[in-house]
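Researcher: Here's a chain I'd like modeled. Treat it as a single chain, no partners, no ligands.
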Amino acid sequence: MTDPVREFIRAFNERDLDAFVAVLDPEVELHAMRGLRKGKEEARLWATRPPGGVQQTIELEKLYEDAAESGRGSAVALVRRVWHWDEDGSPAGEDEMAWVFELRDHRVRSWRPFEDRTAALRAAGFDHGTE
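Model: Modeled as a single isolated chain. Structure tokens:
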């Protein structure tokens, strides 16, 4: 079984919308910066990025998972967003953040970005024994 968090990130980076949607629970909720998106079709629209301009690539730095083998539970991905110009790939910036996932049946049930990594770990219950 594919790791849903890693597949979410891979599919997002590669703009593989079919694979992105396939890793989502039918009742997925994406808590995006511009509001809540519910369901696979809304998630597909959210992940659709027109070409050109500044684009982002997500680099996974560390993954905390709870009950990953069962396909349920939560996960926190400490990520680096690397921004680049689509036209020539030149750098446009980068920042660190965390993505919190709720999993159900080996699928992403919920996704929420956090600018504060410590707050993300705390929100998902991973604040004990972390760096």
